[in-house]
Design goal:
binds adenosine-5'-diphosphate; three-stranded antiparallel β-sheet; 46% helix
């Protein structure tokens, strides 16, 4: 057993709350086939929430859709990218080391990611959180194997967007430094070729209050995004196959921006959003 697996499985005194959370909150036995997801099942009979994972290239919109589903299903959205950024902003002992890795588009070590995730799970355990939608984890086969060793994931949603749109979406990403809202100033309009239809994604512009407070992620420069895409193909693409082989992967090609994609994603998941006011205006 390697060091990270030992870290995850061992040290009962230190990790037991997180491990207990994992075995309770991530242990629900939902069907992984969409046919069996027939009704919008968001809790199992014991009241445990769903245990889903979002995969997809940088810029595809994992955070956007994971966050919407988390609100709809009442389970926490856990983004390892957000955990890394929180640590970076904290000026804690790891911050300097992380900056050198993240700002160059590289992956953080499994050891650091697992320790950030365990800290987040321990915090969730104190609030009796149940279920989760993981975003940005697992990102390597090793992470997927470690996760598989402690829990059963019900469903893995693989979001896909044509490659020529991904770079534009990353470069257009903006965050409100005041409220944390996510926006995108990119207007994607790619002419259809060889029988493919035109591909249009309208910008997601901020409200007036946020417009003057927008910031760009330091790793959203063209050079770093290209490196992140390369690393995704090398390190994270195999994770898709890992879950495909286990019959857990739902492939979802985004047909456009949020207004086109959100209703289709809900349909693919057999879910209904009775409170969907945002799509129309997004
Ligand atoms: P992206 O837009 O590339 O999907 P994220 O916001 O998910 O970016 O992650 C930002 C950065 O945080 C990554 O480029 C990587 O350095 C680090 N990171 C996030 N999740 C992981 C993970 N599971 N393993 C290793 N590094 C990670």
């Amino acid at each position: 057993m390697d060091a990270v697996s030992r870290l995850w499985r061992g040290c009962a005194a230190v990790w037991s709350p997180a491990r207990m959370w994992l075995s309770l909150a991530m242990g629900a036995r939902f069907s992984t086939s969409l046919a069996r997801l027939g009704s919008p099942m968001t809790r199992d009979p014991d009241g445990r929430g769903v245990h889903w994972v979002f995969l997809g290239c940088p810029g595809v919109g994992k955070g956007t859709y994971a966050s919407r589903l988390s609100q709809l299903l009442g389970v926490p959205h856990i983004s390892t990218g957000d955990l890394v950024r929180e640590e970076l902003a904290s000026s804690g002992p790891l911050a300097q080391q992380l900056a050198g890795i993240v700002n160059h588009g590289q992956l953080v070590s499994d050891e650091i990611i697992m320790s950030l995730l365990i800290k987040r799970l321990e915090h969730g355990a104190t609030k009796a959180e149940s279920g989760s939608i993981l975003d940005g984890f697992p990102r390597t086969i090793r992470q997927a194997e470690i996760l598989e060793g402690v829990t059963e994931i019900d469903l893995v949603i693989n979001l896909k967007l044509r490659e020529d749109a991904l770079l534009a979406k990353c470069l257009g990403r903006r965050i409100c430094s005041h409220c944390g809202g996510n926006y995108n100033v990119a207007s994607v309009n790619i002419k259809g070729e060889n029988g493919r239809p035109d591909f249009i994604m309208a910008p997601l512009l901020p409200p007036a209050d946020c417009a003057s407070k927008l910031v760009t992620r330091v790793d959203d420069t063209e050079e770093v995004v290209k490196e992140r895409l390369r690393i995704y193909n090398e390190m994270s693409k195999p994770v898709e196959e890992f879950y495909r082989a286990r019959g857990k992967l739902l492939e979802f090609d985004l047909p456009g921006g949020i207004p086109e994609s959100w209703p289709k994603l809900l349909q693919a998941l057999n879910l209904v959003d009775h409170d969907d006011k945002q799509s129309a205006s997004a």
